[in-house]
Every structure is written in C-alpha cells, then in structure tokens.
Amino acid sequence: MTLEYRDRYVAFVDILGFTDLIGRTTGAAPIVKLDEILSALDVPGEVQLEGIVLGRIGDISSAGHTLTSFSDCIAVSTENSEKGLMNLLFHLRAIAFRMLRLGFLVRGGIAKGKLFHYEGKVFGPAMIKAYELESMKAVYPRIIIDPAISKRALEAEPPIEIIFKRLVRENDDGYFMVHSLWAIRMAADSEDGFVGEWRTMIEGIAHFLENEAQRLVSKPKELDKIIWFKKYFDWARDRSWVDKINAPFPR
Fold it and tell me: Hey, what domains does the chain have and what are their CATH numbers?
C-alpha cells in the first residue's frame, strides 16, 4: 500500500458515558455483553451482507469502509463518492440507534478531505475537521455534518438529494445531523404504531431519558443536552396524527 493521504469522508464519534458502559460489561453478572458493544459498532447487516442498490449510486457496501475505535471514540471513514457518503450515513445512524437502545447517547462530526486510515491508524486534516465539529459545534447528542457536505448533497442529482434528506434532519442552527431516530419515526407513522418489542423499546428509552434528566438536575449544561434529545425523541415517537384521523367529522 502506498502511504499517502486520500480524499475520504470521515466521522469522529464520541460515546457519551463510555466509562459507565464499560463498567456494565464487568463483574460476575455483566449487564451489557461485549458482543452487544461490537454489534452496535458493526456495519448494518442490510449494507454489509445484502447490499443496498440506490439508483445510480450502486451497491453502497463496496465503499472502502474502515472503522477504528479507541477508548470512548470511534473513527469511521469511506471513499470520497456518493455511495461512500450514503454508506457512512447508514452506518452512523445504526451506531447511534444501537447505542441508544443500550442506554447511551453519541455525539460526532462528519467531514471530508485528506485522510490516512489504515490498519487502525487514522489521522489527517479531515480527521481534525471532524473532531472540531464534534467537540465545538455538535454540543448536543447528535452527529452533525460539515455544511459543505450537506450543500453538495442537497444540490446533487436524484436520487442523492432524496436519500440524503431521508437520512438526516436539519436543526435550528442550520446544521444537518444524522437522523438516528429514523426507525422510531417510521414506526410512529405506520398504521400499527408501537406494538410488542417496539412498545417495550420506546418505554425503555423514555425511562432512560427520564432517569438521566433526574440524575443531571444539578448540572444545567448536561441537563440541557438531555432535554434537547428528549424533544427529538418525543417528536420521533409522536402519533398525534392518529387522534386527528379518528376524530369525529365536524358537524
């Protein structure tokens, strides 16, 4: 392999409360199993195994995908292409959602530029940019995207723009973030809504967020982050449209 920088998409992601997460993996009866953490970081099965063909993008599973984890941080990079960006967004959405189900939130930044990422080693201008987005701009438990990337995706020819909009959400501050609660929003919009395992999962997440809010009541800055995410969660699970549909026809 030639040792040189390559243009790549890269995400720097911080798992919030990682020390507590590791604490749950130890002891005689660990609450969290090691394979659960590994599964949370893995490429989504529908991308890795079956492949997803999205119009002219092609199979996004062949996008030079590389992941490195160290301490409470994760670096994920893909090739500088449309399918590389789609691959990255799909994977980050899965990581954030899986971590939430384990009771942990994530924060991160996505950038594009010169990067060296090989055999566990990752560095370069793009990595620094992604880290700066995570540490100085993300603020809340969200994975934000460099505005230059968002602008390019929104101006791209179909189906890029449409797919991008389905994978992200725009925030009040102008940043687009990975839509980590997409699956919950889709279930909320379905006819059946939250039944069985879905109901249990939603109740579990709500309980986790309530506990976090109570735990951080004396830490306003940290509490603000939980309140922000709870508003996002409440929007994602909202099924008030059902009440409107079932309301009596006005006379």
Answer: 6-179 (3.30.70.1230), 186-241 (no CATH)
